[in-house]
Queue: 4 jobs
Job 1
Amino acid sequence: MGVVEVLQLQYGFKKFLIIVWENKSYKPGPCFSRQGRFNGYNRGMKKLFYTGITGLLLFEVANVYFIMPMPGSQRMNSIDIAYFLYKWRWIFRGFFSMMIIIGLLQSTAKRKWVLGIPLLLVGIVIYLANFKMAADAMFKQPHQLLFAAVAGNKVDTNRLVVGVTINGISKAYPIRFLGYHHHIQDTVGGQHILVTYCTVCRTGRVFEPLVNGKPEQFRLVGMDHFNAMLEDATTKSWWRQANGEAITGKLKGQKLPELFSTQTSLAAWIALNPSTLIMQADPAFEKEYDSTLKYESGKSKSKLTGTDSLSWKDKSWVIGIKAGGLTKAYDWNTLKAQRIINDKIGNIFIVLVLAKDDKSFFAFERQSVNELITLQNDTLLLNNRHFKINGKGIDTAFTLQPLPASQEFWHSWRTFNVGTAQY
């Protein structure tokens, strides 16, 4: 350090000497140097890059989490959040991707290959979320719908089926196949139908696939409260499988018309409908179909689809009946013990029966409290008249009035039929 210059200043009658020293060790700080500004910019670009990476990762995980059976996801009311994320998914993806691209291109990191590691991670997550964990990627639609008459049928007749009869034409859809595909669109008796099944709820439903009066196509999009959800192709609204209601989207609150169907063993269905057509396995998915009877027989121990053999537990079986705008649940164990239950739902008298195969069940409306129906070897008796177990008259032209009845898990019935009565 040395003297550079001596200055003399006068202020009024006083004189001042100012000595200017040279500090050779002084260097500009990082905030003011060109290199400092460059390093700060580089850190900002790096931060932008990793913020985009984190945001995109969290978005892709959330987009799947809320509509798939993951820990906690199905016990919260998050359907509107899930739909918001799905509806604006390309905006979110574009925003976070732009952050990643800008941060990557503007960064001058010496080892740019290191940034490829988080990019690879994001790519893997995106692939898994959209091509492996997406509902319609896990459970595909049939490549071809194959049917056979009874003589050419290859499906085990001990299997359960969802049966439909429209305009004199009957078709049976084995739950073994429905359980994988979740929904099948077909035509029966000239009418378009949407046959659905959710193994987590044990719910089989058949709807008319009409949206705003026009035929519609659907795809499996995920689940809400453990029940499968379908999306229509036109409005992208999400529909609940258990009752056909649009629970979010443009058509929220609308319902698909439900069609009458029955769940029976294939053997019972054939006996009651000898001219039926029976859905056969699509060879493309033979390995995906359940090859055991564990699910259908209630012997599965799966956390999601297994059965609790006790009564009125979450995974216990019940028969749910709708009559006069009211609902009531009947314990499966009680029905097996009694075989036939004469009861009342609101002001409507009903009867619920179980066939001797312990699989096929039917419900009918009775005219009065005094009109008791009895069961003998799968034959119903009422006032000396005999009926098949499906209510068709044997020695009379009269037919019992059927009621919608479904077998499902208790947690499903009580969730989607709030305030339901119990027998």
Note: The chain has three domains: 34-133, 146-296, 308-422.
Job 2
Amino acid sequence: MKKLFFLLVAFSLFRTSPAVAVNASYFKTGNELLNECKEFLKLEDKTDMSAGNCIGFIEGATDIHNTLVDSLYIKPIYCFPQNVQSGQLVRVVLKYLVEYPELLNAPASHLVLNSFKEAFPCPESQPSK
């Protein structure tokens, strides 16, 4: 039963349809994340609140994905190269948000995952865990 619950959560979290209306279950839209990540890249001092929100959100989405993959043995949505850095992830997300402005009202979590899926596709032979 517990595994079924997590699968339902994972399914709702990782749906790739960006046309979903934002509701109270999502904390952030792509518009908000775009502004925060622009601030992150501008600042020398990465302790600014907007910069922290950007990197914290991206790292949180990444950790949730990795936890679900590791704990529930689901197929990963994306496959990072070894030694990927947080700054690189911010740039990937920011590039995606700029390239798809029509999606900026979608939940930011969907956009982060879609940006990683596009930038870091898993090899076709990637086995499920």
Note: Residues 2-13+30-119 form one domain.
Job 3
Amino acid sequence: MIQVTITNVKSDRHHNVMKAELLKKAYIEGRRDFSHSHLQNVCLHKAHLTGINFSDAYLNRAILSRTDFERAYLNRAILYAANLSHAHLYRASLIEANLEKTNLGHAVLNHANLSNANLKNANLQDAQLVWANLRFANFKDANLDGANLTGARFYQTIMPDGSIRN
């Protein structure tokens, strides 16, 4: 497999910075671990990234709409103000992810793990969260209009109105 790490003098040496084209090429060639990557503002619209590891990655304002993230790892990822509308996140792991102000409208998050995730001011209108793990998640001021929460697991979950749901 070829090395696709690109260094950026302005970024932390412990993180990778790469363009969408290089990421897609590396993924096609079999690479799945992109943890700690710096991918702010990256456009991966409609990409197929099943099983990818974006744990601890910086994806602020990334365009990830209609992207397939089935069984992906996005633990502790920073997705502030990212666009994940219509994304497929079935069984994805988003433990402690920062999804503040993120657009998850119409996203499929069935069986996803969002425990301890920050979803303040996020848009989850018409999202599917069937059997999702929402323990300790923070939905303060989030839009859950039309969201399907059937079977979702709540414990100390902060709801949009600030109330706690167990």
Note: Residues 37-166 form a domain with the Pectate Lyase C-like fold (CATH 2.160.20.80).
Job 4
Amino acid sequence: MSTSPGSGRGDATVHVIVTPNTNPAPRSAAVMKPRTAVRWSPRASATADEATRRRVQNRGAIHAAWRLHASHVRHSLEQGFYQGWDLHPAQLPSRYATLYAFFLEGVEAASERLLNFVGKAAQATLVGEVFDDAATGQGLLNYFLRAMSCGALSEEDAVRRSGLTLDELRSRSFVAILRGRRA
């Protein structure tokens, strides 16, 4: 079964392999198997026109493969899977471009949410209410940490946009940030 991101039927290409054995009922096992999107034909060209045509065709195939890979990376990021396992160095440009785009497109909303969240957490503490949603604050903090880690945001940008100090960001703990602000 082959699926594409957003199809609702899964996010992997799965092939069923039937293994021969002496048992009359065949055994089958589902395994993950990478697909090859670009096929190279390293034949020598007869003419300059043919060489140009093949270069254009290969460039188009590479760009199509990068677009496909970028859509898969974007889909994974949107589903909360921030780590990937790229099988080939040629996948790195599309991964980095997609990571940067993902974090930079969402940084304004995350910035506003984190600033409001820290402010409301401080208010809740001041009026004696129990603040029990630290997981949301930690998720927003993780967004900034991941954006810094991949290089989409510098430390200075993260400090400016998050409203946190560099030490607070480096603590990697939203609960520790709240405790430090209460003290």
Note: The two ends are 56 Å apart (CA to CA).
